[in-house]
Amino acid sequence: MLSRLMSSSIRSLDRECNCTVRLLDDSEYTCTIQRDAKGQYLFDLICHHLNLLEKDYFGIRYVDPDKQRHWLEFTKSIAKQMKSQPPFTMCLRVKFYPPDPAALREEITRYELITLQRI
């Protein structure tokens, strides 16, 4: 019985992987996700962590082993997009700049965009 429980917990650990996402202010957000989690799940976790509601301006970028940058596709599995082994490292980045950041409704969105401009 104990061996069955242990093998079950080892299998569940096998299905999980760690992700570290560097945020716009260079701080890091680390989480554990299921291996089959889609990009949208990770993006929603980050946005929730930041209280970010105006999500359309942001995306997650990663660098493959050949040093090529890619946007994480939200409809696809993270593990299938990453060509490296866990733990995965990615970056939250601005994907689209609004023409007038002052017109944004959420203060946190303006803050994130202004933080990026200061770096």
Automatic annotation (TrEMBL):
Q: Which residues form the signal peptide?
A: none
The chain positions of domain FERM read 17-119
Pfam families noted in UniProt: FERM_N
Please give the GO cellular component terms listed in this UniProt entry.
cytoskeleton
Q: Which GO terms describe its biological process?
A: actomyosin structure organization
Segments traversing the membrane: none
**InterPro entries for the chain:** FERM_CS, FERM_domain, FERM_N, Ubiquitin-like_domsf
CDD domains with a match to the protein in the record: FERM_F1_FRMD3
- Entry protein name: FERM domain containing 5
Species, as recorded = Sphaeramia orbicularis (orbiculate cardinalfish)
